[in-house]
Amino acid sequence: MPHILLFLAIAIITIHRAAIAQPLNTSFRPGKKWTDTNGNPIQAHGGGILFYEGTYYWYGENKDSVNAPMVVLPGWSVDRVDVIGVSCYSSKDMYNWKFESLALPAAKNNPESDLHPKKVVERPKVIYNRITKKFVMWLHIDSEDYKAARSGVAIADKPEGPFTYLGSFRPNGLMARDMTLFADDDGKAYQFYSSEDNKTMIVSELTADYLKPSGRYKRIFIDQSREAPAVFKHNEKYYCITSGCTGWAPNPSEYAVADSPLGEWQVKGNPAKGEGAQTTFNAQGTFVIPVQGKANTYIFMADRWLNKELKNSSYVWLPLQVKPDGSLEIYYKKEWKLSEFTP
Q: Facing residues of 301 across strands?
């Protein structure tokens, strides 16, 4: 009898768990509530994607807290959430995401740390170094008043971490705020970052271990005030999509094309098309995802910021088309699937 009762109890628990299991997502719904496989809102803002051994990893800012008191500065003010850390999620299909870890947590008890809750930790990006076998994270590190303007670096042995923080610096001795990483086919990697009080962007080649600037860099978009870079490569051309500098308020995106990361970048215009293009569909870009197994297929990844309740900011992922002439087009869709991509 005890064995029968135990079996019945296990069966009831299994049925109950199945009943409350999260239904699988089968499409993207830009701007709508997006939960992980445990039913919790995804907290990966200003993020980026790493594809490694058949799995996508999504890294981003965890803002799962009420807004902290606004920081009032001369001429402007900043809505913020105290630093919690960098989240890591994993997925096989990009519709459904499992929370893996707080890959780089805040340093709650060390006011001097770059990762202290009162500091600024933004736009984390991770690439894999095939030589060192390390996962390398770069991120924008700043003081509460945004005067530090530095880049931080962390490393891990596994994509989900834990990441070990190595410290921060001004790459090439220059101010660094919004940023992204790009790893090329030849193994070289580059950091793109807003500099010179966000007036100019820098493309900086990294050392072979991806931990420091190599010393080779180029100033691009000079005096154009661009931020939020998102970079990808298509048919031996390099593309960089950026945002204007309007704080939390959305603005038109702009893209540029070059023959090499340190080459001459030609500005082409706004890739967003149709209704909502002048605000990038009420969002700000953060990354471009090459879809594995689908040639010439990309996703434009953006954040729809709610500056007064940052933890509820949502995600706007849209298909990005590279036309035969090399131009870019992003149209808004209320709901879409990967199968809808045209060749």
A: 287, 317
Domain ranges of the chain: 41-340
> Whole-angstrom Cα distance, residue 333 to residue 274?
11
| AA letter at 224 | Q
Q: Cα separation of 152 and 125, whole Å? A: 11
List, as one string, the DSSP characters of 148-177: S-EEEEEEESSTT-PPEEEEEE-GGGS---
Question: Would you write out the chain's pLDDT as a tens digit for each of its 343 residues?
Answer: 444 444 444 444 443 444 356 789 999 999 999 999 999 999 999 999 999 999 999 999 999 999 999 888 787 788 999 999 999 999 999 999 999 999 999 999 999 999 999 999 999 999 999 999 999 999 999 999 999 999 999 999 999 999 999 999 999 999 999 999 999 999 999 999 999 999 999 999 999 999 999 999 999 999 999 999 999 999 999 999 999 999 999 999 999 999 999 999 999 999 999 999 999 999 999 999 999 988 889 999 999 999 999 999 999 999 999 999 999 999 999 999 999 876 5
Cis peptide before 261 (omega within 30 of 0): no
Helices (H), the chain: 2-20
Indicate the class that CATH gives domain 41-340: mainly beta
The model carries a pTM of: 0.93
Task: Return the ∠ at Cα 279 (arms to 278 and 280), rounded to 5°.
Answer: 95
Q: How far apart are CA 238 and CA 263, in angstroms?
A: 9
CB-based contacts of 215, cutoff 8 Å, min separation 6: 172, 205
Q: Which residue has the tokens 């080779």?
A: 216
Look up residue 12 and give its DSSP letter.
Answer: H
d(CA 109, CA 107): 6
Closest CA to 176 of 223, 216, 138: 138
